[in-house]
Specification:
about 350 residues; alpha/beta; eight-stranded parallel β-sheet; two-stranded antiparallel sheet; about 15% strand
Length: about 350
């Protein structure tokens, strides 16, 4: 399987984030991608850089105001006397009272970020663009006849809405790939196996019937992102019935996860999808610090194998995974399962 990566991903290296009322170390470290890259080399994947695809595919998903904000945010923020090194929003719209669009960068940061978990640094915009470009390149290869391609995207994307980022996400790589595939495929399914619900992806396709969104994740009743990912959320308008959430109890392990995945695959088959995009988060692993689910290494291999059995042209897009000792083996196992082989990555 071809794998695309950007050597510039390390330019985004947020040192801090805000959790449980404290400033703590950020988990989205460059090591995440570097460890995966090492495993891809060990398993013999063809590693490639992506050709530039410009802003058009990104602008097909995200609003002009949001893209302008991401591009200008760090420079404008640093003009504030005493401002933090990275952009950290700290005031947010009140429900039902977001009728104005602020000109201040402080207001725009709160308007366009839905939490404090996605600090914007000097190089974040450029790196997020590169990450999205990888997903577009992978989709391009499917349009040219490739059956399966992996995009090592960092930062992740599935918490990014058309006009909002959050949860370590800025541009929704998987949604951008999905929309790009619609150039040739009439019906595309996007399945998210990250431990966190893909609230941004759900938001992108909420009213669409040409894209089926399915998410398997830790039940958000007491887990991030809290306000989305519940089973009753099924889409609106034309999109009603084209959104399927499969929330799982805390510490769900392999067999129960695979049973839910079977439900997901049955729905994808009924949808008659012509192509598939996978938000491949591996933070559902039993030893991930997010402590949500308890999928094993073999579980990720089985997940990959079941998704391959759908027999669809597939783009696999990297999302979460924050244990530096397990992330590479989880990803390698999922890709090996998809290809029906063993992994040599440890």
């Amino acid at each position: 399987m071809k794998a695309f990566f950007s050597p510039h991903h390390a330019g985004h290296r947020p040192s801090q984030t805000f959790r449980h009322g404290r400033i703590v170390a950020n988990r989205d470290l460059p090591t995440r991608a570097e460890n995966i890259l090492t495993a891809l080399r060990q398993d013999g994947h063809t590693l490639l850089n992506a050709a530039p695809h410009g802003m058009t595919p990104i602008a097909a998903v995200h609003t002009p105001e949001y893209l302008d904000f991401l591009e200008q945010a760090w420079v404008e923020w640093r003009k504030i006397e005493g401002a933090s090194e990275d952009v950290f929003p700290y005031i947010f719209p009140v429900r039902g009272m977001d009728h104005g669009y602020p000109t201040s960068i402080v207001g725009r940061a709160g308007y366009h970020m839905h939490d404090c978990w996605a600090p914007i640094g000097e190089h974040t915009w450029a790196v997020a663009r590169d990450s999205a470009n990888l997903a577009v390149e992978a989709a391009e290869h499917l349009l040219k006849g490739e059956r399966a391609v992996y995009a090592l995207c960092r930062p992740s994307g599935h918490h990014a809405f058309p006009d909002m980022g959050g949860g370590n996400c800025f541009l929704n790589n998987a949604a951008i790939a999905t929309q790009h595939l619609r150039r040739s495929f009439g019906r595309v399914a996007l399945i998210d196996v990250d431990v966190h619900h893909g609230n941004g992806s759900q938001g992108v396709f909420w009213r669409r019937d040409d894209v089926l969104f399915v998410s398997l994740h830790r039940d958000p009743i007491d887990y991030h992102p809290y306000f989305a990912g519940h089973a009753h959320e099924r889409g609106e308008g034309n999109g009603l019935g084209f959104n399927l959430n499969l929330p799982l109890p805390a510490r769900t392990s392999d067999d129960a996860f695979l049973a839910a995945l079977e439900t997901a695959c049955t729905r994808i088959a009924a949808f008659q999808a012509e192509a598939l995009v996978v938000s491949l988060g591996v933070d559902a692993h039993e030893d991930d610090p997010t402590a949500g689910l308890a999928v094993t290494f073999n579980g990720f291999r089985r997940i990959g194998a079941r998704l391959a059995a759908l027999n669809l042209p597939t783009v696999l897009v990297q999302e979460g995974g924050y244990n530096m000792d397990t992330i590479a083996r989880c990803v390698a196992g999922a890709l090996a399962g998809f290809e029906g082989r063993e992994t040599t990555a440890a």
